[in-house]
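Quick one:
INPUT:
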């Protein structure tokens, strides 16, 4: 079994890469680019860019190992029938969910702003979960998908740390999934909320999960992929010499 020991807070964790999945939360243009939902809420969206390069490296390492990768997107149907009125009615009517902006209707499925940023674009075959809420388990088939594939551990990345990442981790924890939140692969419009959001997860002996920087894990996954490739090469050579 391909097990890796990962330095994390509050303590090191062992990850079996065959029963782990990488989940990348809401890395959408609506949150990371000007003119979308994040900006409409009055935020400096450039603060979220810090998570892009670490997410890209983590995504590449997971793909190299054929680890399950799941992407999520927050958004609503064009008729807003799945959006609670309280959520829609917040803020300036010109910039609300469903209003027209430079990237199409804000937070509406199928619009350019709702899509995932090009740097982290899903590959064919990678599940994309469209979620109407903050948590990725709320009114989605994520749990079914994880149970069908016997996934027990989630490597969690995405935005924003204290909103959709935290909500998803809490939902996952209640359902018995182990979460390892990759600190530099997450970001917030409020740096102090990013720090507090991570602190809340790992406090009290890891009350919701563990928190770890991504680089040591990326390196360990890359080393494992290399070992696998060498082993596959040696097996192929041995088979050739037998023939
Ligand atoms: N506003 C904010 O920080 N986040 C959200 O509305 N959604 C997500 O976190 N994806």
């Amino acid at each position: 079994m391909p097990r890796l020991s990962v330095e994390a807070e509050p303590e090191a964790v062992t990850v079996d890469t065959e029963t782990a999945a990488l989940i990348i939360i809401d890395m959408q243009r609506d949150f990371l680019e000007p003119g979308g939902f994040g900006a409409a809420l009055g935020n400096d969206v450039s603060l979220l860019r810090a998570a892009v390069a670490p997410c890209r490296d983590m995504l590449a390492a997971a793909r190299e190992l054929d680890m399950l990768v799941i992407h999520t997107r927050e958004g609503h149907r064009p008729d807003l029938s799945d959006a609670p009125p309280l959520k829609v009615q917040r803020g300036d009517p010109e910039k609300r969910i469903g209003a027209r902006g430079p990237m199409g209707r804000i937070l509406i499925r199928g619009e350019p702003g709702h899509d995932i940023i090009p740097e982290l674009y899903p590959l064919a075959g990678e599940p994309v979960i469209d979620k109407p809420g903050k948590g990725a388990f709320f009114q989605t088939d994520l749990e079914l998908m994880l149970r069908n594939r016997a996934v027990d551990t989630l490597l969690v990345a995405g935005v924003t740390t204290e909103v959709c990442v935290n909500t998803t981790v809490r939902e996952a924890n209640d359902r018995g999934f182990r979460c390892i939140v990759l600190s530099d692969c997450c970001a917030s419009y409020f740096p102090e909320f990013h720090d507090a959001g991570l602190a809340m997860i790992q406090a009290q002996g890891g009350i919701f999960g563990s928190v770890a920087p991504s680089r040591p894990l990326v390196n360990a996954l890359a080393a494992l992929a290399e070992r696998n490739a060498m082993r596959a090469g040696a097996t192929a050579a041995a088979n050739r010499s037998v023939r």
